[in-house]
Specification:
Helix content is 39%, strand content 27%. By secondary structure, it is α/β, with parallel strands linked by helices. Strands 1, 5, 6, 7, 8, 9, 10, 11, 12 and 13 form a 10-stranded mixed β-sheet that branches. Strands 2-3-4 form a 3-stranded antiparallel β-sheet. Helix 2 crosses helix 8 (233-245).
């Protein structure tokens, strides 16, 4: 019996460092001093990559939140449709990616009050194309939306028959496809339109822009909080309100042309 106990203790001593290494690797210690932010860096001016750095309006907002929480910040770039799942399981604590509230997302994650409201959807066509006044004029045409974005969800909800919907990953993909005549129209938000032409130097006169007048056809942007980190919600809400009241939010809007 003593021999068995000695062998067991020896094995335990040998395996302890390995077990500790495995445990720490599988369950890393929580860094309470760092705010982990999920974004999709393909959505200018909210988040995009320039000179190998993620920048944008939402990135600046997230940095302000971290500063006022007295935390460091870690930004994780994910595909847009991976952001909510990442927040749902707690991989990211908040999402700063120009995300709009909808009922399906709200079943999984927590939205703050919007910090920008009423950004209308635009139907963009090449100048000289058939005149478009509403969605019904797009029957029989190939129309681009960005997959998972609010404009995609809106168009899907309208059940307009005869539209060939093309889903691309980013606004820049949509503008490029339209410019190269790979589609007849592109539907996206007005802020996205204005900023794209500002930073890419494309001639706006080569395109036609038709606002969708439906009061449901707009984006409103919020910070999203992971349900695994719901304790952050009150602080994030308060900081957003402070940013609004002290003029910081307005200054950031001017900085990013919003």
């Amino acid at each position: 019996m003593k021999k068995v106990i000695i062998i067991f203790l020896a094995c335990a001593l040998i395996s302890a460092p390995f077990a500790r290494h495995f445990f720490l690797k599988a369950f890393p210690p929580k860094d309470t001093n760092t705010l982990i932010v999920g974004t999709n860096a393909e959505y200018a001016p909210f988040a995009y990559i320039e000179n190998n750095e993620i920048i944008g309006f939402d990135i600046d907002v997230a940095k302000e939140i971290a500063i006022r929480m007295h935390k460091n910040i870690k930004i994780i770039d994910l595909p847009f449709d991976s952001l909510v799942p990442a927040a749902l399981v707690g991989k990211v604590q908040i999402i700063a990616a120009g995300m709009t509230f909808n009922e399906e997302r709200a079943k999984k994650v927590i939205f703050t009050k919007p910090y920008i409201e009423g950004d209308p959807f635009m139907i963009i066509t090449k100048d000289g194309a058939s005149k478009v006044t509403n969605l019904n004029d797009l029957k029989g045409k190939k129309v681009i939306v960005n997959e998972g974005y609010t404009a995609d969800l809106y168009l899907s909800s309208q059940n307009v028959e005869g539209i060939d919907v093309v889903r691309l990953n980013s606004p820049s993909d949509g503008f490029t496809a339209l410019a190269c005549n790979r589609a007849d129209a592109f539907i996206t938000s007005n802020i996205t339109v204005n900023y794209f032409f500002k930073i890419n130097g494309m001639n706006k006169q080569n395109f036609a822009f038709t606002p969708i007048t439906d009061p449901k056809a707009f984006d409103s942007y919020s910070v999203v909080v992971s349900p695994k980190h719901s304790i952050l919600l009150n602080d994030v809400e308060k900081i957003l309100e402070d940013l609004k009241n002290d003029g910081t939010l307005e200054a950031l809007k001017k900085k990013w042309g919003i």
